[in-house]
Amino acid sequence: MATFLYRIGRWAFRRRRLVGGLWLGALVLAVVGAAVAPTGEEEDLSMPGTESQKAFDLLDERFPQSNSQGAEARLVFRAPDGQRVTARENRAAVEDTLGSLDGGDQVASTTDPYETGAVSEDGTIAYSTVTYTAEAVDLIGPTKSALEDAASQARAAGLTVEIGGSALDAEEELGGTTELIGVAVAAVVLVLALGSLVAAGLSLLTAFVGVAIAFGLVSALAVPLGLTSTVAILALMLGLAVGIDYALFITSRFRDERARGSEPEEAAGRAVGTAGSAVVFAGATVFIALVGLGVVGIPELTKMGMGGAGAVALAVLVALTLVPALFGFFGRRVLSRAVRKAAGAPRRGAGNCATSHDEPSGDRRPIAAKPAKRIGTRWARFVLRRPAAVLMTSVLGLGAIALPALSLELGLPGDESKSVETTQRRAYDLLSEGFGPGFNGPLTVVVDMPESAGARATTDQVVTTLRGVDGIASVGDPVLNQAKDTAVLTAVPKTAPNSGETKDLVHAIRGAVSDVEADTGAAVLVTGTTAMNIDISEAMSDALIPYLAVVIGLAVLLLTVVFRSVLVPVKAALGFLLSVGAAFGVLVAVFQWGWAAGLLGIEQTGPVMSLMPILIIGIVFGLAMDYEVFLLTRMREAYVHGASPGEAIVSGFRHSGRVVAAAAIIMISVFAGFVGMSSPTIQTMGVGLAAAVAFDAFVVRMAIVPAILALLGHRAWWLPRILNRVLPNVDIEGEKLSRHVPAPATDPDAAVRRLPVGRHQH
């Protein structure tokens, strides 16, 4: 693979104008496609195979007219202190408010709370439901303005008015302050790590190209594939993070090759052949882990995985082709100012050497720089002196951070998780106060009856059974379809939607109706948003361990092939578990317990989003393999060429430690930049991924990995002979490339590379 990628790198460098033109054309097409494509709709989560989803599907079939309605708004009115909403002047204000909406653009109907009984027992709170002819994303500005103006009209009359429902929902918008801060931090880290504005700009430019194309494709395919804004944001988040990192790794290797004396085209080929091989493998692990999310069986999770995987694949292609092409355009300016100055000073009088101004597309003079002492080398030697202490401290520290994960509770956020500054959250609180905490999460009971059964007798028996279940506040009258073979009832719990009592209630109802099913032959199904959330959360909990086992197994298999070792993959898998466990501990501490929630702008604690554990496992698995590969490839490269285990560790940190640290800081900054968004899903994702990357890069890969390798010594790189014969050699370190393409004479590691491979080679 290294030799093939070496040829790609040299070809992209030579044909840089063609490569740049092709990527520019792809970018233009993606942007145009996104601009002309219709806006996708935000779909509710579904879980095929669950009881709640079966009931939803049955409702779609038996009550097709119920799906013809569009968005819905709920106007919640509260009378001034000491008054009732049923008082004459307050009732007149409510009726005037609703009258101003009747017949408005896109308004299908409004309900009168005094006729429908939508008034609280104490008479202080009432609500009206406004239905529209279009979905929330299709509501025009004047329609939403009319709704808000109507609320303002009632407020002017002295009432407290809040608006709930889906009518005011909007897609999450990008470009907020925190995202920009994250990108700015990434830019600063790039400049400090590379010592060149041009090199830093190159990494950012290529990452933005890949992200823009991915975001454009997701937007263009939103309607035909049913992709939501969350899919687009995940693609943006992942594409930006890995795109910058992959470009950084290849750029850093290009600069190393130039420092060893390689000409620009040769250095580009070597950079893509070596660091590019690691990029391909790392990208492949992220891609496989994200695509593997489809096995869970949740369509939304599958779409998120596919969107993120596509963004990662684009980032890999950009890194392998556009990055070396830009090396050709920028030439010596990719190198740091100090290196350019040191290398250029003694050559200024040379008449046959073009300056960087004469040949901006690539000065062909070899650059040789004296390697400087780096903090990575000093850290590696520190770990080698105290491996047991470093290992114990790191493991105990991550274990302590992971302890809160034992209290992990899963759920799906609703209006109760929104900021108290939003009208939706205040409407939720008013309805809970006036009609009970369970009013915001009613259960829908669907009765599928045989044609021969008596509909009235069956539904009466279901109603009686439901009213006898402890925890039910009220049961509505059944509604039959035209064929009289399906009935729908609404049961309101006494407890809040995300409470454990409501979860127990759903199971209690499903158990209680089994006698009705046996007596009548009817199928009684419990559904609704609350029941669906419970079913999805339980499905996620059940799938977590199997998915984790698949991911760990895949990690061990892939790393065994790459590093041709048994213990290195096992060590990597255990480290991955530690970093993921610690990340889950942070999620529980922040989102369930409220620790530091105020600092992050999180106002409401509650269960962790159901999709997050599996999604974070899939993403972090791939990212953890990034750092494992980039750090250990240099170690194994030195080891197989005769270096001792300790020298190999130092060599890996000398070449890759600083770059891996910079890449991790960049990725943490990008993920943390999304914490400021208002979507609970994106907030949870940002906190979880930022924490996981921090733990994995700086504790697991920088401390635990070298400590274990130091303790294992030569045993770390042991591989049974039978596996050595069976496993393919993917040559991720570029070993074959070193044989076919001799190292430059000025390469400081050339002597080591020319050593005959001895007893360390497996």
TrEMBL record:
<comment type="similarity">
    <text>Belongs to the resistance-nodulation-cell division (RND) (TC 2.A.6) family. MmpL subfamily.</text>
</comment>
<keyword id="KW-1133">Transmembrane helix</keyword>
<feature type="transmembrane region" description="Helical">
    <location>
        <begin position="180"/>
        <end position="200"/>
    </location>
</feature>
<dbReference type="InterPro" id="IPR000731">
    <property type="entry name" value="SSD"/>
</dbReference>
<feature type="transmembrane region" description="Helical">
    <location>
        <begin position="574"/>
        <end position="596"/>
    </location>
</feature>
<feature type="compositionally biased region" description="Basic and acidic residues">
    <location>
        <begin position="356"/>
        <end position="366"/>
    </location>
</feature>
<dbReference type="Pfam" id="PF03176">
    <property type="entry name" value="MMPL"/>
</dbReference>
<dbReference type="InterPro" id="IPR050545">
    <property type="entry name" value="Mycobact_MmpL"/>
</dbReference>
<feature type="transmembrane region" description="Helical">
    <location>
        <begin position="544"/>
        <end position="567"/>
    </location>
</feature>
<keyword id="KW-1003">Cell membrane</keyword>
<feature type="region of interest" description="Disordered">
    <location>
        <begin position="346"/>
        <end position="369"/>
    </location>
</feature>
<feature type="transmembrane region" description="Helical">
    <location>
        <begin position="659"/>
        <end position="677"/>
    </location>
</feature>
<dbReference type="InterPro" id="IPR004869">
    <property type="entry name" value="MMPL_dom"/>
</dbReference>
<feature type="transmembrane region" description="Helical">
    <location>
        <begin position="231"/>
        <end position="250"/>
    </location>
</feature>
<dbReference type="GO" id="GO:0005886">
    <property type="term" value="C:plasma membrane"/>
</dbReference>
<feature type="transmembrane region" description="Helical">
    <location>
        <begin position="388"/>
        <end position="408"/>
    </location>
</feature>
<feature type="transmembrane region" description="Helical">
    <location>
        <begin position="608"/>
        <end position="627"/>
    </location>
</feature>
<feature type="transmembrane region" description="Helical">
    <location>
        <begin position="207"/>
        <end position="225"/>
    </location>
</feature>
<protein>
    <submittedName>
        <fullName>Membrane transport protein</fullName>
    </submittedName>
</protein>
<keyword id="KW-0472">Membrane</keyword>
<feature type="transmembrane region" description="Helical">
    <location>
        <begin position="310"/>
        <end position="331"/>
    </location>
</feature>
<keyword id="KW-0812">Transmembrane</keyword>
<feature type="transmembrane region" description="Helical">
    <location>
        <begin position="271"/>
        <end position="298"/>
    </location>
</feature>
<feature type="transmembrane region" description="Helical">
    <location>
        <begin position="689"/>
        <end position="712"/>
    </location>
</feature>
